[in-house]
Design brief:
Elements lengths: L4 H18 L7 H18 L8 H21 L9 H14 L6 E6 L4 E2 L6 H12 L6 E6 L14 H13 L1 H13 L2 H10 L8 E2 L4 E2 L2 H25 L5 H6 L14 H12 L6 H12 L14 H5 L9 H4 L2 H11 L1 H8 L8 H20 L1
Parallel strand pairs: 1-3
Antiparallel strand pairs: 2-3, 4-5
Helix pairs in contact: 1-2, 1-3, 4-17, 6-9, 7-9, 7-12, 9-11, 15-17
Length: about 375
């Protein structure tokens, strides 16, 4: 069924209405204000189209552009009643500055949804040039949109999973997955490594493996599975630099009962945790870990455990903000927060010198969460 031109026109109207609104929002970040103005100009281009003259293929292409641009508008529209907290957004800005040379051009925002990122493409500049040629509008910044569950956007324990999503951004920015996948496929060609790799890292490829003839029935599908898994593994390790094994805590909650299940797009939580633990132990006998680490190094980057325990960490154990001294401590505050959380409310009572059991679990969580938020705010302003 083809979309009727009148329906596409209505979509253009809705988009323009959203752009008109976001241009009135008093953003504290001037880059967002500039970006909104540029986005509004594209919406005006949409309104000028005579959609009745569009062929089905043109309608399909324009709808694709509209869907792509809507992600930006939704992430900026305060009528959603939701935005990534100032503390988390500025923390991501800071993180980006350590990994990307042209970091000022990236703006981070969020919309409601399961943890994900609207992927940054390595050929983004080509895509933006295409948009400029079609709509006559050049974007001075690039908006990177996270999906974060609305009920968690102020939770500084689970929202630390954004470090995993930033891993996807860094992966795409440097095109790391392609190289790691290439190395893995080369290893699969070696009889002494193939079976371990299939069983330990990419068990999903068994779906297209012919055990009788010892070959793959569909190499294209095999490669797709490997690329999907490599992307998730890289993002896990990137996040584990800062959050340690806690980078997968949200999966423990959301995937209960399916920890050993592999999907076409994601390896099982067990496989993911095994690789994270190998990274934290610096286990160089792990083929996949070694190839990921080497690929980062070849790009001039280093994947390593970056956790630094702040000097006054004991304050957080009392439910009080800590004085973050530098960026290393800033990005370590989430792992420290998880450590305090798992010690529990009674440990906080002991640290504060109050009666053991006086602090209920909810109050304990609230105090800890607020202390993390305030620690970040005090450091970043």
């Amino acid at each position: 069924m083809n979309m009727r031109p009148e329906i596409l026109s209505l979509g253009f109207v809705h988009f323009h209405e959203a752009c008109e609104h976001i241009c009135t929002i008093p953003f504290s970040d001037g880059r967002k204000k500039t970006f909104c103005t540029e986005l509004r100009k594209v919406s005006q281009q949409f309104l000028g189209y005579d959609t009745a003259a569009f062929t089905p293929d043109v309608i399909k292409n324009k709808k694709g552009d509209l869907d792509f641009l809507w992600q930006w508008a939704l992430a900026l529209d305060d009528r959603n009643g939701y935005t990534l907290s100032h503390e988390m957004r500025t923390t991501m800005d800071n993180l980006c500055s350590h990994w990307v040379k042209d970091y000022p051009k990236f703006i981070f925002a969020a919309t409601d949804g399961n943890f994900a990122i609207v992927r940054y493409a390595s050929d983004w500049d080509v895509l933006m040039k295409l948009m400029e040629n079609i709509y006559g509008q050049k974007f001075s910044h690039q908006l990177i949109t996270f999906n974060v569950p609305k009920h968690l956007y102020k939770d500084f324990l689970f929202v630390s999973i954004i470090y995993h999503e930033m891993g996807h951004f860094i992966d795409s920015y440097y095109n790391l997955s392609d190289e790691v996948a290439r190395r893995m496929k080369n290893r699969l060609a070696k009889s002494d490594e193939e079976e371990r790799i299939r069983k330990e890292f990419f068990p999903i490829v068994q779906l297209v493996y012919d055990n009788v003839n010892s070959k793959y029935k569909d190499e294209k599908k095999r490669d797709e599975y490997i690329e999907n898994y490599v992307g998730e593994y890289i993002a896990d390790l990137f996040g584990a630099q800062y959050v340690g094994g806690h980078i997968l805590n949200h999966i423990e909650l959301n995937r209960h009962g399916t920890y050993g299940t592999n999907y076409e797009t994601h390896p099982s939580p067990i496989a993911r945790l095994n690789l994270v633990n190998a990274f934290l132990k610096d286990d160089r006998t792990n083929f996949l870990l070694t190839d990921i680490l080497d690929t980062f190094k070849d790009t001039g980057l280093e994947l390593k455990n970056r956790y630094v325990r702040p000097a006054d960490a004991s304050n957080l154990e009392k439910g009080l903000p800590i004085a973050i001294a530098n960026d290393d401590e800033l990005h370590s505050v989430f792992q420290l927060g998880w450590e305090v959380y798992f010690k529990g409310a009674k440990a906080m009572d002991a640290a504060c010198g109050t009666a053991i059991g006086a602090t209920g679990h909810y109050d304990f969580y609230q105090r800890l969460n607020e202390a993390i938020r305030q620690s970040i705010r005090n450091y970043l302003g």
